[in-house]
Structure formats: C-alpha cells, structure tokens
C-alpha cells in the first residue's frame, strides 16, 4: 500500500492547476469526480478503471486529512449485462460503498431512465445512501418518498464554508429519455442562473455545477461565471472521454472523465484571504499503477459470483480472435474498430440473400469498452450489446443516404455515441466544414473498384430499429417499404462466431490502413482514402 500511495501522490503533482495565491486560506475541500460508469468492476482485462481504484484514491485523500466529496456526472444504473438482471441494484451498492467513505452527490443521466416504467428508479432511489440531485427535472413516480428524495438547489457545509451545487440533466430534445415519470425543463442556462442567484442571496461561499449535458452546453453554462464569480467549476457526464476547460475570470472550469472510471478528476477547492474560491485540478488515469481497494473488491467479487451463478456458461469459449479486436469506447465512438466492423458486416446479411448494400450501427450501442482477444467468450457478446438490437431493412437513394450519414459526423470533441461503424461503403470526412456538409466522399464498391455513391440510385440498407426510428439524429425516410423489426443483432454475431469456430476459423481482421472505411482529412490537406 505504501508503494501505491507514493504512485498516487506523484500523479497528483502532474496537475492542470490554477495556482494558489500566496495569501490563500487552504481550508478547502477535495472533490473526486467520475461519470458514465456501467460496471462494478474494471475494464481492459482488469488493467484500467473500476470503482476499486476510485476507492484507493479516496482513501489516499482521506489519509492526507482532506475533506473529500464525490461527484458523479450520471449514467450508472443502465446499460450493462448486470443491469439487465438486477436493474442497477449492483451499481447502487457500489456507489453506497463509496458514499460511506465520502459523501457522494449524483446527477441522473439519460440512462437512469432507460426503462419505460419507473419501477427500477423507485428501487434504486430507495436503496441509495448517496444524494440524487436535479434542478431541471422532477421524479414523478407516484411514490412520495422517492419523488421527495430528489435534491434541488443543494448545499453542503465543509470546514466552515457553504458550497452550492446546481445540477442539470439532458432533455429529450437533446438525446435524453422522454418518460412520463420524469417532467423535465430544457432551459439549462436559465435554471442554472436562477439557482446561482438564489445561492448568492443565501451567502454561499462557492458554487459548482454537476451536469449530464453535451460539452457545448456546459461551455455555455460556464460563461455564467463572468457575472457570478463564486461559480468556479462544472463537472459532467455524457461524453465518454476526458474533457477540460480551464478556469478564467469569464468561464468556470469544466471537467469530464472517461467512462468506467478509466480517467477521473480530483479537484481541490480553496479560498484566498478575501474569501474568493479557486481550484486546483488533476486529471488522473486509473491504470495498473493503482491497485484496486481490497475491501471494495469483496463487493465486486460478490456480484461477479452472482453473475456466474445466473449465467454459468458466461466464461465458456465460443470462438477465437485472430488478433486483438478493439471494442474500447475510445475507439468505437471515434474511429474505425475491427470488432465493430465485424458486427456491421453481419448486419448486411441479416435478411437473407442478396445481402444489403449498406449497413451501419451507432458506436454507442457497443458497450463492452474492452478488447476482445484470444478466446472469445459468451461474456464478450453479452457485454457488447447493452440494448436490444433488432434490425430493419429498407431502401434509400444515394442522395438520401449521404444526408443520413451527415448526422454521424456532427458536433465537435471526442467520443460521440452517434459515431457510425459501417459496412458496404467507405466515407471521408472533413470536420473543418460546416455541420451537414462534412462528407467529402462516400464510396461504394463498383465494377472497377470504389466509386462515388450515385445520387439517383436505390440502395438497400440495414440499420438497428433505434436508428430507423430517428435515434441519435439519423433521419431515415419512412416513405419506402421497410421490414418489421426483426433479426436481433446479438444473435447474428453469436451465430457468426460459433460458425467460424465450427470451421476452425478465427474472427477478425486488422484495419486496412490503405482502404479504411472511415477517413478523416487532416486540415483539408490530405486526399481522401490516401
């Protein structure tokens, strides 16, 4: 443990810091922030992330005599293999474990509301020891104890200082879940500023935000600091890779971690001699240099044992990977993934012969966040698909398809769940161009190699029912004949792996760098597919 403590201390020194004034009052608070966590255990074959490593960091901070508070940016109940069985009970127990060490304040993410009925939320809130925060939404489950548990305009005291916390979650118009038990307002900035003003009237010493929004929305909120100098930082979720915007006079700092606690943030909030708050922030990768906490691992192992009791075949080998297949979220949400392209290739044959011309799937559907390598197990398939994945077959013109695919390359920043993994075509994108006009080239196979898609030609298309219905912003025409939702993708992939195993073949191919399915121009200087 002494070695691990030394490693953590050294890592803390590599900080993105706003320097402490020489006349500072260092009676501050240490926050640990994480977001978008879907497992009680770690990822990348045990080498990254996981609550066990978060607990190690918490204990180190406590050992240094700090007052530690935990902030969670949402998305923890769903989706996962375990949550399909226990509706997030295992995640609540894990968060309760951490809350017992240091108080945790959590905003709900969109995935907390995946179920259409409120039963899972009711059970989760009733069993939670940590605080649920939310200023732009209500719990309307019909259960008074649950509905009244949601904290608004939340404050807490530490070392004689009062901290105000506003919290916001994503509206259905922006990608959240539309649920009858979840009345929600979209005026993020208006609600945040009204709450901040109320905090100022109450005389709080510092103001922070905990959100589950897009990064560009967080940036808009951060600009409220120009009028409200006690507002010092926002921590959030929804994006699955680290984000950082530094604290300035005109903008609050913004921090987001990586999914499954692969990267978290520690934030020291202090006050100068005049009582003005300032922060020192540290981006902290949780990798093999930090050992998981032994006491927490008892909890993680308990849930692992329960999972294997339910699915005793989970660790059975069903195939073999020809090479490491990259299914990490940093890959499937940003670039071509050889595990995802194998999956997309199965989609084109889902409705028999002839195979469909085109198929794609949103990277956010693929939830394993790990490598599939060596022996392929049932677990690899189960963890890959966090949602039902029924497919649809329809037709589109080349012009329509190009417009459809523009939705996959909108926005800025890393790790978008709508980033498409594709089959039957290749695409070249210039992100310096305006949204809706970023596809430079979209090509399909021709008689003499790759050719540009023809605007007036009809092409057959297979997509998940979620995307066919307009999910993730993909607008697929509904004026064509289309199949009913059928042929669930998880079973197609399972069948393909088993079929290859029966023939003595391995699964997967390396990304063909000379013929990539996704090519991104570098400052417009590099030719497409070069």
Describe what this molecule looks like in 3D.
This protein folds into 2 domains: 2-295, 4-Layer Sandwich (Purple Acid Phosphatase, chain A, domain 2); 311-520, 5'-nucleotidase,  domain 2 (Alpha-Beta Complex), CATH 3.90.780.10. The protein has a 7-stranded mixed sheet with strand order 1-13-12-2-3-4-5, with helices on one face. It has a 6-stranded mixed sheet with strand order 6-7-8-9-11-10, with helices on one face. Residues 1-26 have low confidence and may be disordered. α4 (89-101) runs antiparallel to α9 (294-310) and α11 packs across α15. β10 and β11 form a beta hairpin. The chain is an alpha/beta fold and 530 residues long. 27% of the residues lie in helices and 25% in strands.
């Amino acid at each position: 443990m002494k070695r691990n403590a030394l490693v953590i201390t050294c890592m803390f020194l590599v900080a993105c810091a706003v320097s402490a004034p020489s006349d500072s009052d260092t009676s501050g608070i240490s926050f640990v922030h994480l977001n978008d966590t879907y497992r009680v255990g770690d990822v990348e074959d045990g080498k990254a992330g996981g609550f066990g490593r978060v607990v190690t960091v918490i204990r180190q901070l406590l050992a240094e005599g700090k007052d530690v508070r935990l902030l969670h940016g949402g998305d923890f109940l769903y989706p996962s293999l375990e949550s399909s069985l226990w509706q997030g009970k295992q995640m609540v127990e894990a968060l309760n474990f951490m809350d017992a060490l240091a108080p945790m304040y959590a905003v709900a993410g969109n995935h907390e509301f995946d179920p259409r009925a409120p039963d899972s939320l009711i059970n989760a809130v009733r069993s939670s020891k940590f605080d649920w925060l939310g200023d732009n939404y209500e719990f309307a489950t019909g259960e008074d104890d649950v509905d009244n548990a949601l904290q608004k305009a939340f404050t807490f005291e530490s070392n004689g200082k009062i901290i105000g916390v506003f919290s916001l979650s994503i509206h259905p118009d922006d990608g959240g879940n539309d649920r009858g038990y979840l009345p929600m307002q979209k005026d993020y900035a208006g609600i945040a500023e009204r709450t901040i003003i109320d905090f100022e009237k109450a005389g709080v010493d510092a103001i922070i935000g905990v959100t589950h929004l897009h990064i560009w929305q967080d940036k808009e909120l951060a600009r409220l600091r120009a009028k409200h100098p006690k507002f010092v930082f926002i921590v959030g979720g929804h994006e699955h890779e680290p984000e950082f915007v530094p604290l300035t006079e005109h903008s609050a700092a913004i921090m987001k971690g990586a999914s499954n606690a692969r990267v978290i943030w520690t934030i020291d909030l202090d006050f100068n001699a005049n009582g003005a708050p300032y922060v020192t922030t540290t981006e902290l990768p949780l990798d093999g240099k930090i050992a998981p906490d032994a006491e927490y691992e008892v909890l993680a192992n308990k849930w692992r044992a329960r999972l294997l009791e339910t699915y005793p075949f989970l660790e059975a080998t069903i195939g073999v990977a020809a090479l490491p297949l990259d299914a990490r979220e940093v890959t499937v949400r940003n670039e071509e993934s050889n595990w995802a392209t194998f999956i997309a290739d199965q989609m084109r044959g889902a409705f028999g012969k002839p195979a469909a011309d085109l198929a794609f799937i949103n990277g956010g559907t693929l939830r394993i966040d790990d490598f599939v390598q060596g022996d392929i197990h049932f677990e690899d398939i189960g963890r890959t698909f966090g949602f039902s994945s029924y497919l649809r077959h329809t037709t589109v013109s080349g012009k329509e398809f190009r417009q459809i695919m523009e939705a996959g390359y909108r926005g800025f920043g890393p790790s978008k769940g709508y980033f498409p993994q594709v089959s039957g075509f290749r695409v070249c994108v210039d992100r310096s161009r305006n949204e809706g006009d970023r596809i430079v080239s979209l090509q399909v196979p021709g008689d003499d190699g790759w050719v540009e898609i023809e605007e007036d030609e009809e092409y057959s298309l297979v997509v998940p029912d979620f995307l066919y219905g307009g999910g993730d912003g993909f607008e697929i025409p509904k004026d064509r004949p289309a199949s009913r939702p059928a042929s669930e993708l998880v079973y197609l992939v399972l069948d393909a792996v088993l079929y290859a195993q029966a023939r003595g073949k391995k699964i997967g191919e390396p990304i063909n760098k000379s013929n990539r399915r996704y090519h991104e121009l570098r400052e417009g200087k590099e030719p497409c597919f070069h």
